[in-house]
């Protein structure tokens, strides 16, 4: 009686290339981003609705609108990235995700510009009022 050993055949490198590995960190980051963006959309939507019912403060309304636009462009990209991470396949081409990113960046820069403009206007008003300069914003 002869003893023979049978060893499993080594797996070829091409067999393992089709396997999908879900990165838990990316899924968690995209999930939290999506949750924060959805909460921000609800909050900014409420601010826009409340300010449109009354005599609106244009500075706050503009900031809420710019933030709402940023979140509106960020939600689809976060959702697409989350679905791509979970399904392990590309849903949309990278060009479209890049376009969504640039749209959200433009709306973010717009919000930052509005914040800077409001801040500088308030600083000028405070300076004019404290120095007793005649100014339309002190009256």
From TrEMBL:
Parts forming coiled coils: none
Keyword RNA-binding: no
Primary location recorded for the protein, binned into one broad class: membrane
Record's bilayer topology term: Multi-pass membrane protein
Membrane spanning residue stretches: 27-51, 63-83, 95-114
InterPro entries noted in UniProt: MRGPCRFAMILY (IPR026234)
Full protein name: G-protein coupled receptors family 1 profile domain-containing protein
Upper taxonomic lineage: Eukaryota, Metazoa, Chordata, Craniata, Vertebrata
């Amino acid at each position: 009686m002869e003893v023979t050993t049978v060893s499993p055949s080594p797996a070829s490198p091409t067999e393992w290339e089709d396997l999908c590995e879900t990165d838990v960190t990316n899924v968690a980051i995209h999930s939290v981003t999506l949750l924060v963006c959805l909460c921000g959309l609800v909050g900014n939507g409420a601010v826009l609705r409340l300010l449109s019912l009354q005599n609106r403060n244009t500075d706050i309304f503009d900031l809420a609108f710019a933030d709402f636009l940023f979140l509106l462009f960020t939600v689809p990209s976060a959702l697409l990235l989350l679905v791509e991470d979970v399904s392990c396949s590309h849903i949309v081409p990278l060009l479209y995700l890049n376009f969504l990113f640039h749209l959200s960046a433009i709306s973010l820069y717009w919000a930052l510009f509005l914040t800077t403009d409001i801040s500088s206007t308030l600083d000028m008003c405070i300076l004019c009022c404290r120095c007793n300069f005649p100014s339309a914003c002190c009256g």
